[in-house]
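The following record pairs a protein chain with its ligand, coenzyme A.
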Amino acid sequence: MNISYLIYNLFHNRFSFKMLKLELEASKKKTKLRDCSVVDAGKNNTVTLGEKGILNGIRFFMLGDNNHITIGNNALCRGTYQQPIFLNAAYGTSITIGDSILLANNTEIHTTDYHGIIDTNTNKVLNQGKDVVIGNRCWIGLRSIVLKGTNLPDDTIVGACSVVNRPFTETNTIVAGSPAKVVRTGVKVGDL
Ligand SMILES: CC(C)(COP(=O)(O)OP(=O)(O)OC[C@H]1O[C@@H](n2cnc3c(N)ncnc32)[C@H](O)[C@@H]1OP(=O)(O)O)[C@@H](O)C(=O)NCCC(=O)NCCS
């Protein structure tokens, strides 16, 4: 256990039993958490982290029961306390993020709209929550928002300030805009 991370988080007022448990699990996997917090407003909610990640400024938020947030190995999440990353799973949904992903600061992932849209003829809810899946080696650019039902295949790059709201099928693309569309194909993330 890296005691300095634990003390750092304690003194920055982000201590909770759930957070302490996550810190302990992360340290066993050589994953570093900094400025992260967990809000667990329900039952049977889980956060599962992979190995060797650097996870900064993530707000894990689970509302209702049976929500699951998973991040694979070698993740690099570049949130900060002031510019966090929101991973919000609600009402029995999951956020599944693959290996070697990059999440920029101010990115948000939501599996629900939080309020219903009701069909006035049938009285049915039109906007049920849906799982979000992010593949391996994806890079989500600054201030992007990923909404319910999004599926990004391996090696997808999301342009800054995009709103992603549907499943994509082709690997190695850039998707960007609001709503996000494929703007470039045949690419992958590398060093500058
Ligand atoms: C996605 C990105 C990396 C692509 O860069 P690029 O390969 O040089 O792409 P280009 O600027 O040539 O753009 C290709 C097309 O996509 C469009 N596009 C690129 N980024 C866009 C965005 N964020 N929103 C909307 N459209 C975008 C361009 O307008 C262009 O469209 P056109 O062909 O019709 O002219 C870059 O635009 C971006 O968003 N950078 C932000 C990176 C970031 O968030 N870094 C944080 C550190 S983790």
